[in-house]
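Lab meeting minutes (informal)
Scribe: AK
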Amino acid sequence: MKNRNMIIGIGVIVMAGLWYAFRPELLFVNKQVNEQFPSQQATAGPVTVAKGNFKSLAHETKGFATIYKLADGKQTLRLSEFETSNGPDVHVYLTGAEVEKGSDAIKTAGFVDLGSMKGNKGDQNYDIPADVDLSKYKSVTIWCARFGVNFGIAPLS
């Protein structure tokens, strides 16, 4: 009886750990985001610095990535008509890697983490730190930090 209870206890702990690591419910839950574009107080509108279309890699990913320079000098990444899979610990990165070189190239080339993905569907904005030199970054990627998987990538031009 004692061994049986211990096995059940260990089984529960293992199952909880696996659930935490994989978060399987996120495969079925979509998080819709519809952020407005940052408002402009000046007469000059935002200037497009770079843009690209998402390509699917590990998960179907679609939409547009556009980097804007706002009238106040701030830079913002906007994902529009965006859609990908949900998952645990998914981030938006600017990366120096080329699309064709795959997930390992992202780690090697370096990246700037713009934060956790706000939602797996919809329009959303990410502030780019002022000290980021955009000439070093060739693409926007949706990266699962927990498993080191590249969901999708948008080459910038």
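Next up, CB showed the second protein from the same session:
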Amino acid sequence: MRHNKTINHLGRTSAHRQAMLSNMASSLIKHKRIFTTTAKAKALRKYVEPLVTKSKEDTTHSRREVFAYLQDKVAVTELFTKISEKILTRPGGYTRIIKTGNRLGDNAAMCFIELVDYNENMLKASKKAVSKTRRSRKKTTVEKESSTPAPEKESIPEIVVETAHVAEHPAE
């Protein structure tokens, strides 16, 4: 039974695990997306999300707390300047795990872990999906306007311009 076993130790000692998660978190913050195993990505999600939440409040104390975890000045600066601006209104769920299949060598489950607000393809898809929120049989104002016949205006004669079609042959 696995009662009260919430941490995946990833087959490493505590110090090795902390160092690995710190390095992976720094890479995620710098590159916005990394490719890793699913188990490591799930452990990294628990490690990174509280740090991103702390970055919403840009104080010396929160910077020092985050630096104690990451040990990387460049990653801390990136987190508190660029990333915190984008996630300021988001209440949580700053990372996304996208499974990609199994690794050829040892058949380990692989995935991408990325920061949610930095994937332009997903952002475009979510904007399209949000456009329709409710199904109703009532006509909208656009449909009402299109269903009523518009008053006819004077017809403007169309001007037809004929151009000579010249077949282009590649120079030999």
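CB comment: The first strand starts at residue 33 and ends at 37.
No objections, moving on.
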